[in-house]
Amino acid sequence: MSQPTDLNLNQAVQALSNGETSSRELTQAYLERIDFLEPELNAFVTLDHDGVLAQADKADQVRAASKNGGKEQHTAPLLGVPVAIKDVLAVKGLRATAGSKILESFVPPYDATAVERLRQTGAIIIGKTNTDEFAMGSSTENSAYGVTHNPWNMRRVPGGSSGGSAAAVAARMVPVALGTDTGGSVRQPASFCGVTGLKTTYGRVSRYGLIAYGSSLDTVGVLGQNVADVALIYNLINGHDERDATSAQMPQDDTNLNGSGRLQDVRVGIPDEYFRSGLQAEVETAVRQAIQVLESLGAEIHTIQMPHTQYAVPVYYLIAPAEASANLARFDGLRYGPRLEGDNLRDTYTGTRGQLFGRETKRRIMLGTYALSAGYQDAYYGKAQKVRTLIQSDFARAFEKVDLIAAPVAPTTAFEIGAHRGDPLSMYLEDIYTLPANLAGVPGIAFPVGFDSQGLPIGMQLIGPHFQEQMLMSVAHSYQTTTGWHTMKPDLSMITPC
């Protein structure tokens, strides 16, 4: 049998079920790989070595008792499988830093709903993955706990803000990980790291236990090696949650990929606005070739227009910082995490926030506070909300003509660490193709479709109407049954033990 860490999620589940490996062996193999690679990659903020091995042993005991005819027959689909969680989601007993020094010592007394549902299926939480501070970034360079490196090229970023989760999956440090997507933070790192990432419809997966960035934009998503792995996790974590006021009043979705294959009657829209200047030629070529594969499977290809796409970046960077300004007001050193004592309450408050928030977080708080300030709210935040409605209308009109939209995930492949340092606008423009779906609240899935001349992965995204995750994953799965890009993994043989 191949190394346990070479297994994808579904293969790991099958190997455990067949007795080809044990949860102890599987978990130990992942921990050893993490310990070996982590000094170079920095994909994790927190690991739970002793805790996960104890959970693995318990899972093996439950499985053995079930096979031996014990009273309790286990039905947990992920029993004994390690998973990783982005460090903006609460995991009981493990610190939740959100990539920030201001939450360095915060340990939640509860699980986020998505985490809770994974635990109920027998999954083992192996640790918390690195993230841009409060999920504000497109490179995972903004983390207070160091930069995460792209497994395909250590000088490149893994994307962000779910860069730790994407890098961990790509490097086979874990079979699957949860991430979040506020402006592309699952899809862009999936593209940069050559893995598959699902952004769910706003409200489809509970946000309870998520450290909020932009409350009208945040979604919980999944990163895995392939669509089938992502679908397995998605099926387990989606569904209504009374603890989340924004949770959709819909029954739990159960995506079935068995019918994937030919794509007759599937209409795919190609927006002109996503294929204009600034798009790396190799990215455009790979994406258009992937669209041709969909066409060869029977899909109808239609050119569409989404005229308000050009406003997505300024609209997002008014709405998201405004919501962040309100959400991050609670982090003052008095209720959460460490604080820097001053001579009075004001000095303590300003000193703690001034020194423990990172540069990008402070930039967005100030931008959002200004956009909400008296005399400016209507001109900035209010107008941005009106243009957001126009962007939503673009999608609504598009989905009257087509079933889904195919487009690049990012203008380029993974850029070098530090490439956009000192130029936040150039960094913001990296999100130009992912932001519209968040502003509209619709689902999207990103998956690998090739490599550039530097050997860096290229991703394509499919975007669908609200609550059409089933269709998106079926089409993406059809693509992956025809191609092999998703099976390729980075060569990490150059890394030597410290």
What does this entry look like structurally?
The protein is of the alpha/beta class. It has a single domain (4-308, 391-487), classed as Amidase signature (AS) domain (Amidase signature (AS) enzymes, Alpha-Beta Complex), CATH 3.90.1300. 38% of the residues lie in helices and 12% in strands. It has helices at residues 9-18, 23-41, 49-67, 113-120, 163-170, 187-193, 227-237, 281-296, 312-327, 345-356, 359-372, 378-401, 424-428, 435-440, 469-482; strands at 44-47, 82-86, 124-129, 176-181, 196-199, 219-224, 267-271, 300-304, 404-408, 444-451, 457-463. An eleven-stranded mixed β-sheet has the order 1-3-2-4-6-5-10-11-9-7-8, with helices on both faces. α2 (23-41) packs antiparallel against α3 (49-67), α5 runs parallel beside α6 and α9 crosses α11 (359-372).
In short:
With 498 residues, this protein is of the alpha/beta class.
SSE inventory with pairings:
Blueprint: H1 9-18, H2 23-41, E1 44-47, H3 49-67, E2 82-86, H4 113-120, E3 124-129, H5 163-170, E4 176-181, H6 187-193, E5 196-199, E6 219-224, H7 227-237, E7 267-271, H8 281-296, E8 300-304, H9 312-327, H10 345-356, H11 359-372, H12 378-401, E9 404-408, H13 424-428, H14 435-440, E10 444-451, E11 457-463, H15 469-482
Helix pairs in contact: 2-3, 5-6, 9-11, 9-12
Helix count, DSSP H or I runs of 4 or more residues: 15
Number of domains: 1
The CATH class is identified as Alpha Beta
Which residues sit in consecutive blocks of at least 5 with pLDDT less than 50?
Answer: none
* Number of E-type strands: 11
Largest sheet: 11 strands, mixed
On the 0 to 100 scale, the average pLDDT is 95
Q: Biggest sheet: strands side by side, in what order?
A: 1-3-2-4-6-5-10-11-9-7-8
Helix fraction by DSSP (H/I, runs of at least 4): 25-40%
Give the radius of gyration: 22 Å
For CATH, the homologous superfamily is named as: Amidase signature (AS) domain
- The helix/strand class is alpha/beta
How large a portion of the residues is in β-strands, by DSSP E? 5-15%
Order of helices and strands: HHEHEHEHEHEEHEHEHHHHEHHEEH
CATH fold name:
Amidase signature (AS) enzymes
Shape summary: globular
User: What would you say the CATH architecture is?
Assistant: Alpha-Beta Complex
**Gap between N and C termini, in Å?**
28 Å
